[in-house]
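User: Run a structure prediction on this.
Assistant: Running it now.
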Amino acid sequence: MKHLIYLLLFFPWLVIGQSNSQKEEASSNKEVSKKMVASSISSHFNSKVISAYTNQSEQLITDFYAYLTLYPQAESEALQKELDKSIQQMFLSETILVEDFISGSNKKIKLLELLQYCKENKFVVSVNNIQNTSVNATNFDMRYQLLVTNNAETKTYNFTQKVYLFPVEKQFGNIKKTIWELKLGEF
């Protein structure tokens, strides 16, 4: 009987507490979206800083293709998994859609599928003429030319890829700081 009384007294508090945590989570999500709208690239940085982030975006794209060319040389499965992990950390999401330039089908596939194709095929890529075509509220649009040689056949692709720049709060010991991260997006 004593347990039943405790249960009846504390159950309403449990329900109210869960309701409040759901409201707090919804409020937190609204704050994040407001922060993204308010954190326009051009409103936070001057032209020299934007130029520096553009250069870093170019390097990030170059690094991505350099990692892809390591797959045919990776002899162990452990090394392939490390490459997978490194490439996935470069992107906004591992489910992002990208062009299938390995098989030449010109269709959009998930990043993980592209990585699998890279493991199964021997190819050579080179990136040329990377340039920033626009600065949007949360991303740069980078245009470049990709030359892909696969099975002794070379194809040229012209891509425009989004590179996102956004604030992330990081903790360094007891200090919290907001840093800005670049992540590759769809192409």
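The longest strand covers residues 153-172.
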